[in-house]
Amino acid sequence: MAPRVQSKKVRSKKMGAALKVLTQYGFEKDHIVSTIKGLIEEYGGEDGWVFIEDNGYQVVVDSILDKQSSEQQKGEKVGESSSNPHVEQLAHSSGNMAMLRILCV
């Protein structure tokens, strides 16, 4: 049986819904879109939306936070310092930088 193909309209609605939810958590639109596109590719195509939408986009949140954490650790290795080390330490220890960013704004 041929694989089911979603229309561009359906994909657009799914991306729009994901952006609406995830921007409320404080994530930037470009990070959300690039992460979702990567996950769709990783899951083998448009059928991957089932996993992306599952549990309130948790896999997207985890993926973005992992990227931010690895970028932060890479920056620390190079010797970059934070403008506020207490906030940076709290974000690193809690593992939830997006929520911390919302609270600090």
UniProtKB/TrEMBL annotation:
Keywords assigned: Methyltransferase, Transferase
EC number: 2.1.1.354
Tree of life domain: Eukaryota
Protein name, entry field: Histone-lysine N-methyltransferase protein
